[in-house]
Write a structure and sequence with these properties.
The structure holds two protein chains of two kinds.
Chain A: E1 2-5, H1 7-25, E2 31-36, H2 40-54, E3 61-65, E4 97-105, H3 109-119, E5 126-136, E6 147-153, E7 159-163, E8 172-176
Parallel strand pairs in A: 2-3, 2-4, 4-5, 5-6
Antiparallel strand pairs in A: 1-8, 7-8
Helix pairs in contact in A: 1-2
Chain B: H1 16-33, E1 47-52, H2 58-69, E2 73-78, H3 90-98, E3 104-109, H4 114-121, E4 125-131, H5 137-151, E5 158-162, H6 169-180, E6 184-188, E7 204-206, H7 209-215, E8 218-221, H8 237-244, H9 248-252, E9 259-261, H10 274-277, H11 284-303
Parallel strand pairs in B: 1-2, 1-3, 3-4, 5-6, 5-8, 6-7, 8-9
Helix pairs in contact in B: 1-5, 1-11, 2-11, 5-6, 5-11
Classes of the chains: A alpha/beta, B alpha/beta.
């Protein structure tokens, strides 16, 4: 097990990602933040918190998206059927600028499913992807992130895990060897 | 955790965990049904045949809608307009359909055990949509889902099932389902319509409808199944209605408001007065809406069942 980001580094990275969003989206009047269930939501919650602090008095549209029913390995995966999480998008996404948030980008298949799911809520103006960790050279689909916390080179057998400790303490990103 | 069964033949075979998993998954599907695009691509490559040997409106439409919302391919089969009329046996009909590569079969039949028989002979997953006087598992699941949605939980809930208990597969499945989920059940009806020794199911019996209503939080009212009664079991529908029909005056005279359910089709003026069926206490139309979500959950969980976890 190898640490990739310590608690403090992770905190700085999230701060930077939030600042990049502010730079590109300004007052967020037409932008929507969407966290991918289940693990991307831990990150999107923290980014949302920082955005709210930076833009007091602004109601930033924030939703959560579950992609369980959009997976492409529904029948082929050896794992047990995942239990669906809540999708909470109580607004139309038509003509909005969407920022899709997930913790680790690996094969790109989850994001593919996420894009499919998003389209069921309307036709967005554009969709950007924000990830905390980009595992380069492991993509199975032509999907690339717009905002990256950390890029790492890994092999398929390794696992990158973002650990969110209780009470927002001891958050870290670790690399687990096979 | 996956379902413990490969087919949904009856609630009898399910564990409490299975039922919880189905109800939890149904919550997610109910959410899908509220979206602008009420459809997910999950069962894109799955073919499902709806095999209805007995008349049905609600259940067939509900299953068909659930299948379509999951993007499955569906084939509808109604015995009344098929080769069954020409003397084909059940197993032959099904083998012919399966030769066309079908993944799941949803079956309704007037003979008890027909889906169980089918499941022993074919590989496709079988879902019982009602077999004779035995079980109607998806109805019980959607009833439990509706009670949970309306009242918050099933545990400790008091449910009265009122009407033709003897001929009702809905009553049977509900008795299993509710008790597995920790609810208490009382059955109520004329003595001729309540099977002997039904106490062995763990339920209590009363012959007084007022007593049942005073006791319960939820009343699930059933239709008199005249088509299954081959001898007279009560004198007239009018008399039944007089003693067991539920009207507004009766509900108003109770100490507390109760939830009224009915699996349909309703015989208005017999078991339920119109002003009750359409009142704010009634969740009959919620039941129909929840039926689609619950059936989506059942189809999804059975279709996703992995080969190696079977047996």
């Amino acid at each position: 097990m190898k640490p990739l980001l310590s608690h403090q580094q992770l905190s700085i990275t999230i701060e930077r990602l939030a600042c990049q969003l502010l730079e590109n989206h300004g007052d967020f009047s037409n932008s929507v933040l969407i966290g991918m269930q289940p693990r991307g939501v831990f990150l999107s919650d923290r980014i949302y918190e920082r955005l709210c602090k930076a833009l007091p008095g602004t109601a930033i549209a924030y939703g959560k998206l579950d992609i369980t029913f959009y997976r492409d390995d529904f029948k082929t995966s050896a794992d047990d059927l995942p239990v669906a999480n809540e999708t909470a998008i109580p607004f139309s996404l038509a003509d909005k600028k969407i920022i899709l948030v997930d913790d680790v980008l690996f094969t790109g298949r989850t994001i593919r499913a996420g894009l499919d799911a998003l389209l069921d809520f309307g036709r967005p103006a554009d969709v950007e992807l924000l990830v905390l960790v980009d595992r380069r050279f492991s993509r199975e689909l032509p999907i690339q992130p717009d905002y990256v916390g950390l890029s790492v080179d890994t092999v398929a057998e390794q696992m990158v895990k973002v650990v969110w400790g209780p009470n927002d303490q001891k958050n870290e990103v670790i690399l687990i060897e096979a | 955790m996956p379902l413990s069964v490969k087919n949904l033949l009856g609630i009898k075979d399910l564990t409490a965990e299975d039922i919880s998993l189905i109800l939890k998954t149904a919550v997610s599907f109910k959410d899908v049904l509220q979206r602008p695009i009420k459809k997910v691509p999950t069962l894109r490559d799955t073919t499902i045949v709806n095999l209805f040997y007995e008349n049905s409106t609600r259940t067939r439409i509900s299953f068909e809608l659930a299948e379509k919302r999951l993007s499955a391919d569906t084939i509808n089969f109604a015995a009344s307009s098929s080769s069954v009329k020409k003397g084909e046996t059940l197993i032959d009909t099904v083998n012919n359909i399966l030769a066309m590569k079908v993944d799941m079969v949803v079956m309704r039949h007037s003979a008890t055990g027909a889906p169980h028989f089918l499941s022993k002979h074919i590989d496709a997953a079988v879902i019982n949509a009602g077999d004779g006087i035995n079980e109607h598992p998806t109805q019980a699941l959607l009833d439990s889902f509706s009670i949970q949605e309306k009242t918050g939980s099933l545990k400790g809930r008091k449910v009265a099932i009122i009407g033709d208990i003897m001929h009702s597969r809905v009553a049977m499945s509900n008795m299993y389902c509710l008790q597995k989920m920790g609810a208490e059940v009382v059955v109520c009806g004329p003595p001729t319509l309540i099977p002997k020794h039904i106490e062995a199911m763990g339920v209590k019996v009363t012959y007084q409808v007022r007593e049942a209503l005073e006791w319960c939080d939820v009343a699930n009212v059933l239709r008199i199944q005249l088509e299954r009664q081959n001898k007279p079991l009560f004198s007239t529908l009018r008399e039944y209605s007089l003693y067991y029909g539920i009207d507004k005056a009766l509900l108003d005279s109770l100490k507390k408001p109760i939830v009224i359910m009915h699996p349909g089709p309703i015989n208005r003026g017999v078991e339920l007065a119109s002003d009750v069926a359409d009142s704010e206490h009634s969740i009959i139309l919620d039941q129909v809406q929840n039926g689609v979500a619950v059936r989506m959950a059942v189809l999804y969980l059975l279709a996703g069942k992995k080969e190696e976890t079977l047996n």
